[in-house]
Amino acid sequence: MTDSKAVQPPRVTLDDVRGAQKMLAGVARVTMMEGSRHLSELVGAPVHLKCENLQRTGSFKLRGAYVRIAGLSPEERAAGVVAASAGNHAQGVALASTLLGVRSTVFMPVGAPLPKVAATREYGAEVRLHGEVVDETLAAAQEYAERTGAVFIHPFDHPDVIAGQGTLGLEILEQCPEVRTIVMGIGGGGLAAGIAVAVKAVRPDVRIVGVQAAGAAAYPPSLAAGRPVAVERPSTMADGIKVGRPGEVPFRIVGELVDEVVTVTEDALSSGLLLCLERAKQVVEPAGASPVAALLSRPEAFEGPVVAVLSGGNVDPLLMQRVLTHGMAAAGRYLSLRLRLTDSPGALATLLSVLSGVDANVLDVSHVRTDPRLGLTEAEVEVHLETKGPEHCASVGAALRGAGYLVME
Q1: Cis peptide bond N-terminal to 113, omega within 30
Q2: 312: which of 59, 90, 236, 373 fits an S-S bond (Cβ 3.0–4.6 Å)?
Q3: Any catalytic annotation for residue 61?
């Protein structure tokens, strides 16, 4: 039988995190913490947002990447580094390498958002587009490392990376010493593990809660099984936490130190992103909004003061547009309806008059008059409306039905 002690992943300690903090001085920003009145009222206790979306490169990933690369030997630095990422890790490795004078090659999926590809190049990396999914990109990067001798920089499964991410935990304790609960997104587990190591060593009473997207939640089954378990075909808009299998090193730490891992729906992620933008004036990506989504979903479950970590703000503008629309629909502020009406002069104007009477803002109208599904004197209209919430949506539907329209939502 194999000696279990020989295969245990390396530990990460508070001293490691404090050493990383010294290393990052003058490199990573001490990002601000902002109170959220809306979330505080919802939870019934103070809620603060740790704005790591304002970090250099737009996410926390710079912290771990810099510490990992800074710890390489002169020979390893001379060989260069390689990474695989669709976004945040790519940019963190690119900037960290440039700051340390190390050559970097970053493999990104062919379909990676163009702004993220451009930013990675601008930070100094050679970008190679390969593969349709991240797994293919990862395999290409690992093959490159074996072929060239470049050091592969894993996004979360290394003690130095975890120690770097853990510096966020020390900052939270300094900025909010009265904190009772810290909430952050979990993908592979590097951020949650690092924060847990730092915080639990100083304040074991603080509750650490990780958040996963329901369609990419590898940690709950893994924790139940006592080992990392892969989720087949993870699916979520939150690319930053879309990881199919926990890392070996962070998994052990999360299992020991993280108090709870919860999941949130896509609707909740959209609503969280929308709230960050409208109420907190913070641009975040869906993964960065995951702690806010958890607070919106179960406000009674979090003892305050609460710190929610907005882990990143690198959101593709096209995705932002779709997510905001989805978030408005989830919040009852965007309504799409199809209606049948008589195809006669003035019929459309009459419909718009009914909508105006209930104060619904018409965003778009599509009018179909020729379709085999329609009767000779019928037309179908699809309308997109901006509304004021679920009650207003209900009153709009009631007004239309009261006016004799056949409404097909």
Answers
A1: no
A2: 59
A3: yes
Band the pLDDT of 132: cuts 50, 70, 90.
confident
Predicted model pTM: 0.84
Whether residues 282 and 311 share a domain: the answer is yes
Domain count within the chain: 3
Specify the CATH number for the domain of residue 124. Answer: 3.40.50.1100
- Tell me which residue of 86, 81, 118 sits closest to 97, measured CA to CA: 81
CB 216 within 8 A of CB 238: yes
377: exposed, middle or buried (Cβ count in 10 Å: 0-12, 13-18, 19+): exposed
Task: Tell me whether strands 361-368 and 104-108 are parallel, antiparallel or unpaired.
Answer: unpaired
Spatial CA neighbour of 178 closest among 296, 47, 300? 47
Alpha helices (runs of H) in 183-289, residue ranges in sequence order: 190-202, 219-225, 248-257, 266-278
Is residue 1 included in any domain, yes or no? no
**What string of H, E and C letters represents the secondary structure of 337-406?**
EEEEEECCCCHHHHHHHHHHHCCCEEEEEEEECCCCCCCCCEEEEEEEEECCCHHHHHHHHHHHHHCCCE
Asked, for residue 4, whether it belongs to a domain, the answer is: no
Domain around 35: 9-59+158-328
Q: Do 311 and 343 belong together in one domain?
A: no
Q: How far apart are CA 352 and CA 390, in angstroms?
A: 20
Could you tell me which residue, 44 or 9, shows the higher pLDDT?
44
My answer on whether 175 and 112 are in the same domain is no
Q: Is residue 187 classed as helix, strand or coil in its secondary structure?
A: coil
Nearest to 58 by CA among 20, 23, 18, 29: 29
Distance between CA atoms of residues 90 and 108, nearest Å? 8
Question: Residue 346 pLDDT > 90, yes or no?
Answer: no
Last residue of a domain, one of 120, 152, 184: 152
Instruction: Classify 211 as helix, strand or coil.
Output: strand
**Do 137 and 272 lie in a common domain?**
no
Does the annotation count 297 as an active-site position?
Answer: no
How is 249-269 classified by DSSP, letter by letter?
HHHHHHHHH--EEEEE-HHHH
Annotated catalytic residue, options 36, 104, 297, 311: 311
